[in-house]
């Protein structure tokens, strides 16, 4: 994507990108770098999609902590490694030094043991959270490119090859937006459930959309923030595996220096979390951390929580079912009459690294190369 191509005006209308997550923002940045005008429409009041980096409300000085994607593996993921370097972002290695805890029975102490060297693949994290990557990509876009609080509800393809999107705007009005092409940088199931197409999408494409489970949509994540990573003084890495819960897997989420944090994935199903309610779920988290790490674990500076299954901009009803295996992500098929009018981007559409930040970037590169073919005269 680094070689600029000469393009011709396909129309006076921009490429409209629906969704301002990493894939949508990266696609916009690449298109604009090639001189192709575009706008990004986002239904949330913020951009970033499933990237969510938050501060402890009462102690923002302790840093930002990720409740969405957290790590990347540069040894296997060259695209994000290259982009991070290009944007001059600071990274540090995930802390893994020390003993791991394994909790099998609630009424018995957790077992402590050292993992063999090389058991855990070394991953990298972004200083300031993954939000720094989102902000840096967004900063490459001209002012006004991103329109927040704008919900696309319909897409119509006219017989004269025009494409028109219907959208609800922040002021409560409904407006039409003309596009030369549309990139849907949303989880495929959201597209199938929340956008009306005229003519209707082919049945094969609809089935393909629904067959892509939304990554993280059934999950909830929690970060316990502390003034210091006190568990390291006891020779612990912060890594915990639990068959008791409510957290099934815990990792050290501390910044490179300063404050401490523990990041947990839940083992309980979305239905159970909804039935218990947030207050009860978090009280169980505090109880578990205290059980594992002692009274110091209760002295939190903040407790951050995000249940993605209850986020209507992420999950649909079908996403409540836990994934039994890693989803078979990849390209969508069966566009039919919509071919060369709508394009799909996002980590769920990447044939490799689906569910990862790398997958989101790969899909953006791929879809932009396809859109450029509509405009390209010669390289």
TrEMBL record:
GO molecular function, one term: oxidoreductase activity
Domain Amine oxidase: 116-372
Pfam families the UniProt entry points to: Amino_oxidase (PF01593), NAD_binding_8 (PF13450)
InterPro entries registered for this protein in UniProt: Amino_oxidase, FAD/NAD-bd_sf, Flavin_MAO
Gene3D superfamilies per UniProt: FAD/NAD(P)-binding domain
Family classification: Belongs to the flavin monoamine oxidase family.
Protein name stated in the entry: FAD-dependent oxidoreductase
Organism of provenance: Paenibacillus agri
